């Protein structure tokens, strides 16, 4: 059974380090089931780069509600990552 991944952040890091390898190298064992980014143009570009039509979301909570996945990849800029120190 393939492990299902969702990706948040479709800039160079998200697409180059995670989305492309999942769909191009690891598709036997992994599936990219959703991508989320605040920028809809970047989401469309990500799909064109990976030559897929992955469901896209501009709202994280909507993606969480709609999509079942095993692992969430957070590839947004580091300053947006949640930290225990920021609580």
What can you tell me about this protein's structure?
By secondary structure, this protein is an alpha/beta fold. The protein is built from three helices and four strands. The protein has helices spanning 12-24, 40-50, 60-66; strands at residues 3-8, 30-36, 56-57, 71-74. A four-stranded parallel sheet has the order 3-2-1-4. α1 (12-24) links the parallel β1 (3-8) and β2 (30-36). The protein is globular and about 30 Å long. The termini are far apart.
Calculate Rg over CA atoms: 13 Å
Shape: globular
Sketch the topology as an H/E string, one letter per element. Answer: EHEHEHE
The percentage of residues in β strands lies in: 15-25%
Q: What is the end-to-end distance?
A: 37 Å
Going across the biggest sheet, name each strand in turn.
3-2-1-4
Helix content: 25-40%
Q: Mind describing the biggest β-sheet?
A: 4 strands, parallel
Poorly predicted spans: none
**What is the average per-residue confidence, as pLDDT, rounded to a whole number?**
92
Helical element count?
Answer: 3
Q: What's the count of strands?
A: 4
Query: How would you classify the helix and strand content by structural class?
Result: alpha/beta
Give structural attributes:
87 residues; alpha/beta; 4-stranded parallel beta sheet; 3 helices; globular
What is shown here, in short?
With 87 residues, the protein is an alpha/beta fold.
Helices and strands in order:
Blueprint (H helix, E strand, L loop, with lengths): L2 E6 L3 H13 L5 E7 L3 H11 L5 E2 L2 H7 L4 E4 L13
Parallel strand pairs: 1-2, 1-4, 2-3
